[in-house]
């Protein structure tokens, strides 16, 4: 929606002409500017700047959806697959596990076990299908340098001893998990290969959160 053209928004003519004359061509061009800066560019007063923001926001904003409509759409589309967490209560509450093809955010205070949970999910995603995994590949984006191969092996040995006793299988699974540690925004926004399952570990000053 950010790249939606102002010329396609059916704005009031005076406003459309004013924005076009100032080369504000997309929704992003208008909405990324503070009111004061937009006033200066348009050479207009505050009411005009606010009217521009309001009209462009309304035109570019996606339609509102209720939780019920999202649920109905999910049922209609079939809901997609699930990655079982092997935690019975959690899998039952989630309807079978973590939904695939969607963004799941795991949130909680520091030390609650989010990193351990993400490490286990990474293992499960790489696990062979006949053991309940996805038999897939994983990109683990670790911006806090918390990924621990040693801890992952410990989790694997405790959770899946039958696999880690098989010679070479643990190494094969580990080879499917690519750990990325971006050090800049440019690195962070680079797209991983589309065939990978992505786990993202990051934090904030007051608590942290870990989308998986």
Automatic annotation (TrEMBL):
Single GO term (MF): ATP binding
Q: Does the keyword Nucleus apply?
A: yes
- Tell me where the signal peptide lies: none
| Domain RecA family profile as annotated: residue spans | 79-212
Sorted keywords for this record are: DNA damage, DNA recombination, DNA-binding, Nucleus
Pfam families listed in its UniProt record: HHH_XRCC3_RpoA, Rad51
Q: Where in the cell is it found?
A: Nucleus
Against InterPro entries, the record matches this protein to: HHH_XRCC3_RAD51B, P-loop_NTPase, Rad51_C, RAD51B, RecA_ATP-bd
What's one GO BP annotation on this UniProt entry?
Answer: double-strand break repair via homologous recombination
Q: Which GO terms describe its cellular component?
A: Rad51B-Rad51C-Rad51D-XRCC2 complex
UniProt keyword DNA damage, yes or no: yes
- Main subcellular location of this protein, as a coarse class: nucleus
Residue intervals passing through the bilayer: none
Family the UniProt entry places it in? Belongs to the RecA family. RAD51 subfamily.
PANTHER family hit by this protein? DNA REPAIR PROTEIN RAD51 HOMOLOG 2
Q: Indicate what this protein is called per its UniProt record.
A: RecA family profile 1 domain-containing protein
């Amino acid at each position: 929606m950010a790249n939606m053209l102002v010329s396609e928004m059916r704005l009031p003519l005076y406003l459309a002409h004013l924005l076009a004359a100032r080369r504000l061509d997309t929704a992003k061009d208008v909405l990324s500017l503070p009111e004061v800066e937009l006033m200066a560019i348009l050479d207009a007063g505050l009411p005009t700047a606010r009217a521009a923001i309001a009209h462009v926001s309304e035109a570019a904003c996606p339609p509102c959806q209720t939780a019920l409509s999202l649920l109905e759409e999910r049922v209609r589309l079939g809901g997609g697959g699930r990655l079982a967490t092997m935690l019975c209560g959690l899998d039952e509450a989630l309807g079978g596990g973590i939904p695939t093809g969607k963004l799941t955010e795991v949130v909680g205070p520091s030390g609650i076990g989010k990193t351990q949970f993400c490490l286990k999910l990474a293992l499960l995603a790489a696990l062979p299908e006949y053991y309940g995994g996805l038999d897939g590949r994983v990109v683990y984006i670790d911006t806090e340098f918390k990924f621990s191969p040693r801890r992952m092996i410990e989790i694997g040995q405790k959770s899946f001893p039958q696999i880690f006793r098989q010679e070479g299988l643990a190494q094969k699974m580990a080879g499917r998990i690519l750990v990325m540690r971006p050090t800049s925004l440019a690195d962070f926004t680079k797209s991983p290969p589309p065939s990978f399952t992505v786990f993202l570990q990051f934090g904030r000053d007051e608590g942290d959160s870990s989308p998986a």
